[in-house]
Structures are given as C-alpha cells and as structure tokens.
Amino acid sequence: MGERSASNQRRPIRAERRQRLQELGFVWDVLTAQWEEGFGYLKVFKRREGHCRVPISHVENSFKLGTWVDTQRQRKARMSQERIQRLDELRFVWKVR
Fold it and tell me: Which residues contact 65 (CB under 8 A, 6 or more apart)?
C-alpha cells in the first residue's frame, strides 16, 4: 500500500482492491470494531464473574474494560437501541451506587 495511510483506503475503491483488503481483515469502521471489542471483553468478564459490575480500573487482556464500561454508561442517551438492547441482555449495570 506504499505510503498511503489506512484512512485513505476508506474512500471509494475498485471492487478488486476492496476484496483484497477484506481478505486481509481490513477494518472499515474503526469505532464499531472498538465497540465490538469492548462488548466481547464484557461478555468474557460476565461469563467468568457472573455479573457486569466491572471496576473502573479493570483491564481484560490489556483492554481497559472498566473505562469502556464507564464510557457506555455516559453515552447511553446517544447510544443506538440495538447496542442498549445487547448490553441489557447481558444485564449491564447502567447505574452504579
């Protein structure tokens, strides 16, 4: 790919190049990928601990899960219904006392 940055590759491209990038596992939507990563680690935590009350300082496999959980609480008002539903299905703790 030479000197082009990954963000430059997100503009419209030929189907052949798009296919090659997909085969390499190219991430087209970084924010969604990051959210999915956090959600995946939350599921791991819940399976192991039996709850979603993640301490703010908790790190799961070098991922700052506690910070991610806190961010989800802060962004609930702007979050999609689909994400809220997925978190609710895990019995996500929206309000911490």
Answer: 38, 41, 42, 45, 54, 58, 59
pTM exceeds 0.85 for this model: no
More confident site: 5 or 18:
18
Measured between alpha carbons, how far is 44 from 32 in angstroms, rounded to an integer? 18
Using an 8 Å Cβ cutoff, are 91 and 52 in contact?
yes
As a whole number of angstroms, the distance between CA 8 and CA 21 comes to 13
- Mean pLDDT on 68-81: 96
Q: State whether residue 78 is helix, strand or coil.
A: helix
Cα distance between residue 38 and residue 49, in whole Å? 16
